Amino acid sequence: MEPTGSATSEGATCRVAVAILNWNGEAHLKRFLPSVVAHTGHADRIVVIDNGSDDGSLALLGREFPSVHLVTLNENHGFAGGYNRGLDQLLSDVAADWVVLLNSDVEVTAGWLDGLVAAAESEGWSAAQPKIRSVERRAEFEYAGAAGGYMDRHGFMFCAGRLFDEKEIDHGQYDSARAVFWASGACLLVRTEAWRTVGGLDEDFFAHMEEIDLCWRMQNRGLTVGVTPAAQVYHLGGGTLQQESPNKAFLNFRNNLYLLFKNDHRPGIRSRILFRQVLDGLAGLRFLMEGKPDFFKAVIRAHGEFRKNRPRMVGKRHLEKQACSSPRPVGQLSGHYAGSVVWDFFVRGRKRFSALDQNRIS
User: For 250-299, how does the pLDDT look when each residue is reduced to its tens digit (9 = 90+)?
Assistant: First the structure.
């Protein structure tokens, strides 16, 4: 690892290493990196992990951001593989108490990092996210994380401030520091020791939901994930894959099955996976009715990939169970919703997180 303008000293230390994964993101770096440089203190280090870009990203960094350090990878390893390899290199050169996984399309604000670290340390969290709002609609919560992530009884993911595609305006209604089921990979603070304990991200996910898998594995080991309003960032979203993308739908449907199969250690996983696949099939039929045949095909493809890779997931499930001496039941994990967010949203018309039965959230 080397900075774009100077040499890296051996045995360097820092409080937080802010790691931005980049793949052909020259425009995002030019737009958003200045806020990170402006609002990150001297006790912390900013690192761009380049995932084999062939645009002008590296030239831009050398020309306009000489204080930013650089880790270069020879090809695109995806979100999971890029961070695993990049942080391996980074943490071999730099002793950092914390790392932040920060998307290249995130605008940070004054005090964001101090607020995140202070909340995590005071609450005893091993991972945390800030409040995430939209760059383009700045009063609105952003899709990927909003005010903290939750999971319902059937493994559907949602957020305080965002149920499915319904995003709320932020009126301070979720301004409390609290434990959640998962924190967003758009801006994810992780204690370095916890990152190493769980073994980083699962590269079978490639992209999407790998941070949820990471947080679930942390919880299964007795660690806690949280969200704090003391830090706020703005996220563009869709920087690598468009929000309305059949490929993104494929990854989300497939990876959701991966993380359920790996991390839900209760007996009866096969019946729960089958029921979830039925629900996915209904979602696929809804895509057809909406005139989105490519999204329907994405669901079918996702299920095919899950069946193909199921033997490997069986092995990972066994390894996870062995690594967790006494995991809590899923229903007792922070941020688990004992109800069905699908039923609440589509049948009961509950479009806001605050409309859910809060007594059913652990």
Answer: 999 999 999 999 999 989 999 999 999 999 999 999 999 999 999 999 99
d(CA 261, CA 157): 15
Q: Which residue has the tokens 């760059």?
A: 135
Looking at residue 186, which CATH number applies to its domain?
Answer: 3.90.550.10
| Full DSSP string of 230-272 | EEEEEE---SSS-SS-HHHHHHHHHHHHHHHHHH--SS-HHHH
C-alpha span between 224 and 125 (Å, rounded)? 5
HSE-up of 42 (CA within 13 Å, CB side)? 0
Tell me the per-residue pLDDT of 139-176, one tens digit each, with 9 for 90 and over: 999 999 999 999 999 999 999 999 999 999 999 999 99
In a domain, 106, yes or no: yes
Q: Which domain holds residue 180?
A: 2-235
In this structure, is residue 107 part of a structural domain?
A: yes
Residue 185: which of 82, 280, 53, 32 has the closest Cα?
Answer: 82
Cα angle value 325/187/205 (rounded, 5°): 55
Tokens of 59: 């030239």
How many domains does one find in the chain? 1
| Residue 116 maps to a domain | yes
Helix residue ranges per DSSP H, the chain: 26-38, 57-64, 78-93, 112-123, 192-198, 210-220, 246-263, 269-289, 293-323, 341-342
CA nearest to 225, candidates 208, 240, 207, 213: 213
